[in-house]
């Protein structure tokens, strides 16, 4: 059991590090692009495509991390007036809704990835599938986090304000 937990934490940490890494690389590329454009009147031909790709990956991975940390939108002024039992039911419904959306991401993300695998981005010649490949990965991670929350396991790894009831 410890081995499985260690493996899951490794995958979770890797997922988070890829998201943070994409944000850092995106910031570096955009900064470099601004400097080369303003100072040298030169544009890196690949920078916009790579930035867009990294933005897609960072955004979708951020969705899954937000689910893990229970940072989804909530109307706490409404739920604060409800008894704890009602809040537990709402939390279960939210987890089930999250799982349903994650299944949607996996199915249609995979379909888009396969559909776009034959076309390429114009500047970098990377497959368009790279833009969509993050969708099924995010859906899979969301299912894991939502299922763990559904069975009562706290998935939060960071002490973030506003995370859940």
Protein model, in words:
The protein has six helices and no strands. It is mainly alpha-helical. The longest helix is centred in the first third of the chain and has 39 residues, at 2-40. It is elongated, with a radius of gyration of 19 Å.
Keywords:
single chain, 165 residues, mainly alpha, 6 helices, 72% helix
Could you tell me the strand content as a percent range? Answer: under 5%
Secondary-structure element string: HHHHHH
Shape: elongated
SSE class = mainly alpha
Instruction: State the assembly state of the protein chains.
Output: single chain
* Biggest sheet features: none
- Low-confidence stretches are none
Task: Give a short overview.
This protein is an all-alpha fold. It has helices spanning 2-40, 47-68, 76-79, 84-115, 129-132, 134-150.
Topology:
Layout: H1 2-40, H2 47-68, H3 76-79, H4 84-115, H5 129-132, H6 134-150
Helix pairs in contact: 1-2, 2-6, 4-6
